[in-house]
């Protein structure tokens, strides 16, 4: 299964590179159902001026647009970064079954921060928490973060 994680995470990394080229944080996400990508997204909050345009949200919007809104609860999401609190809420709302991410987001991550929305089990109607795997392709994800910080320092 770890091989599959690498395969889809490399797709996320390609999307993250596209986000970075547009001046956004290097985040890419894909949603997979039955080994098929049903939605993808790139971080575009900075370039569009819309803070809700996180890669994970864009991937869900894409999957919904592609006709998979009723199947999201059976899917897996891959993303280069741990989903933030906002994205984690959306993941829980749609009951996405599994999250695989690259690098942690310590202050506002939905799993590793004190705001662990992804693992909360006391919210009515959210059901079971998703299965979560982190640190997949973490070195590559962190390298893109370093490039983004260098870009910010030049501005």
Automatic annotation (TrEMBL):
<keyword id="KW-0862">Zinc</keyword>
<dbReference type="GO" id="GO:0016787">
    <property type="term" value="F:hydrolase activity"/>
</dbReference>
<dbReference type="InterPro" id="IPR016192">
    <property type="entry name" value="APOBEC/CMP_deaminase_Zn-bd"/>
</dbReference>
<dbReference type="Pfam" id="PF00383">
    <property type="entry name" value="dCMP_cyt_deam_1"/>
</dbReference>
<feature type="domain" description="CMP/dCMP-type deaminase">
    <location>
        <begin position="3"/>
        <end position="114"/>
    </location>
</feature>
<protein>
    <submittedName>
        <fullName>tRNA(Arg) A34 adenosine deaminase TadA</fullName>
    </submittedName>
</protein>
<dbReference type="InterPro" id="IPR016193">
    <property type="entry name" value="Cytidine_deaminase-like"/>
</dbReference>
<dbReference type="InterPro" id="IPR002125">
    <property type="entry name" value="CMP_dCMP_dom"/>
</dbReference>
<dbReference type="GO" id="GO:0008270">
    <property type="term" value="F:zinc ion binding"/>
</dbReference>
<keyword id="KW-0479">Metal-binding</keyword>
